[in-house]
Structures are given as C-alpha cells and as structure tokens.
Design a protein that fits this description.
Elements lengths: L2 H12 L3 H8 L3 H9 L6 H10 L12
Keywords: Hydrolase, Protease
Protein name: SOS-response repressor and protease LexA
GO molecular function, one term: DNA binding
C-alpha cells in the first residue's frame, strides 16, 4: 500500500474531506489530492504532520529480505 493510499484510508475512516485534512495539517487541499493520487511522494516530515492531524501515529520499519 502506498503512502497516499494510507492517507486516504485514514482520512475516510474519520469521515473527513481533503480540505478538512489540509486545514488540520496546515497545508493545501491540492497537496493532499496529489499525495493521495500518488503524484507526489510525501516526506516523512509531511507524513508525520498528516498522521498527527488525523490523530494517528506514523510508524516506519525495515524488515530483513
């Protein structure tokens, strides 16, 4: 699952519009749209901001191959 798909899934679980998420995260709706569409690869910093805004915790991990 891509970061954009994860963002969209959590946003929809909350019943939020892209505009609501953008406002909560202090960014623009167009950026949220581009992230969700996979047109922009968000930084870890941006993902953290989005997770915080959606009352979620970002977790990253590496696994052995």
């Amino acid at each position: 699952m891509t970061p954009g798909e994860l963002v969209r899934r959590r946003r929809e679980e909350l019943g939020w519009s892209q505009s609501r998420l953008a406002q909560a995260a202090g960014t623009g709706q167009a950026l949220i749209s581009r992230i969700e569409q996979g047109r922009v690869s968000p930084t870890v910093q941006m993902l953290t901001r989005l997770a915080d805004a959606m009352h979620a915790q970002l977790s990253l991990s590496f696994s052995p191959r």
